[in-house]
Design a protein that fits this description.
TPR-like_helical_dom_sf; single chain; Serine Threonine Protein Phosphatase 5, Tetratricopeptide repeat; globular; 382 residues; 9 strands; nine-stranded antiparallel sheet; alpha+beta; TPR_2; repeat
């Protein structure tokens, strides 16, 4: 079941999802005459909690890749306003779309539609990863409805391949389901266009020479690409959403509180609210939100990380380590988790445990400056 099973499913037919195309699938809802006020009173759409959790993590991972682009590259941006027809949900000024380009090469790195009336709230996001020749090799996409934001209404990972004058991509959603594939270009001097959206395909098509040349280099399953963080170099930023001012942070907290009243069963929203309260410096409030998130969905292991950070800052370091233990048991590839647990062990004068965690962090991210500096303070080689 999709995160918004009451909404017709629709997948963009191009890996470069332009605004008009990506949002066409919302037309049935947006033009239905539902008022914003009525929509706010509508109960949260019921969905498979595993899918909701998976798709939210997928979208969060895409944003981390975007942050990686901002860290690694000098970026040039272009912005334009956008939205929906007058009288529909969202309205004509619902978002502003920002394109992020590599300033040196002109390559499009990311495209984000930011909601105009909400602080640091993504309406849709697409991030591109390029090969050494500047061609897109993988791109990720997630988009939300203007309301019912329990999870993205659409998630996509596109794997790309190039063979002579042929360009192909194979598309999956965040649950690993193959959604679509397309190949176009020229083969032996003739124009070629192949596409498919129903699987498995007829054997005669799959075994044809044209199909093999188009898709032969693409893997059958999304594999490791299903997790955007697979491509993350270095350590993820936490919290990912960081308002630029205290006033924006207060507005963000107010937004989370409003949304929580509308959709009280959104554990991921509680995690983000906890992160915001942590940024504000109110650790008891942060812990309360993390605890509430885990009551709603015990599999939201991100809450254990935030809880561990807040408990440690409160001086309840042993409890903080216990939370970080539970986080790392479910996220063993988290550099940040090992760094913070190592520092917590250091605060309790447990140098051997601290060194073990900090070295594990450097194994995962050899450039992690925080882990290296802590090891040097302990007289260890960073």
């Amino acid at each position: 079941m999709s995160p918004a099973s009451a909404i017709p499913a629709c997948a963009p037919r191009s890996p470069k999802v332009h605004t008009t195309l990506a949002l066409t699938c919302l037309a049935a809802l947006l033009l239905s005459g539902i008022s914003n006020a009525a929509a706010q009173e509508t109960p949260a759409i019921r969905a498979n909690p595993d899918t909701v959790r998976t798709w939210n993590r997928f979208a969060d991972g895409i944003y981390q890749l975007h942050l990686q682009h901002l860290r690694d590259t000098e970026v040039r941006t272009e912005t334009r306003a956008g939205g929906y027809p007058e009288g529909s949900l969202g309205g004509p000024d619902f978002f502003h779309e920002v394109h992020y380009y590599d300033a040196a090469t002109g390559r499009l790195l990311s495209r984000i539609q930011w909601e105009t009336a909400q602080v640091q709230t993504i309406h849709s996001i697409q991030v591109y990863l390029h090969d050494d020749e500047g061609r897109v090799r993988v791109d990720y996409y997630a988009a939300y409805l203007p309301v019912f934001r329990n999870a993205p209404m659409n998630t996509l990972v596109n794997l790309h391949a190039y063979h002579g004058e042929l360009r192909a991509f194979r598309q999956f959603d965040a649950s690993g389901n193959r959604r679509y594939e397309q190949c176009r270009g020229r083969l032996e001097g003739e124009s070629l266009w192949l596409d498919a959206e129903f699987f498995p395909m007829d054997e005669s098509v799959v075994e044809s020479d044209a199909y093999r040349r188009c898709f032969g280099m693409l893997q059958e399953q999304a594999g490791e690409h299903i997790d955007p963080l697979h491509h993350l170099r270095g350590t993820a930023q936490w919290p990912a959403i960081r308002p630029e001012s205290a006033a924006e942070l207060d507005q963000l907290i107010s937004q989370y509180e409003h949304k929580r009243r509308i959709t009280p069963l959104r554990g991921d929203l509680r995690v983000k609210a906890g992160d915001a309260w942590y940024l504000k410096g109110d650790d008891p409030q942060a812990i309360a939100h993390y605890d509430a998130a885990l009551e709603i969905d015990p599999a939201l292991y991100e809450a254990y990380f935030g809880r561990g950070m807040a408990l440690t800052r409160l001086g309840r370091v042993e409890e903080g380590i216990e939370s970080l233990d539970r986080f790392l048991a479910q996220a063993p590839g988290s550099t940040l988790g090992y760094v913070q647990r190592g520092l917590a062990h250091l605060a309790l004068d447990r140098p051997e445990r601290a060194v073990a965690d900090l070295r594990r962090a450097l194994t995962l991210d050899p450039d992690n400056a925080e882990a290296r500096a802590a090891l040097q303070r302990l007289g260890q080689d960073g």
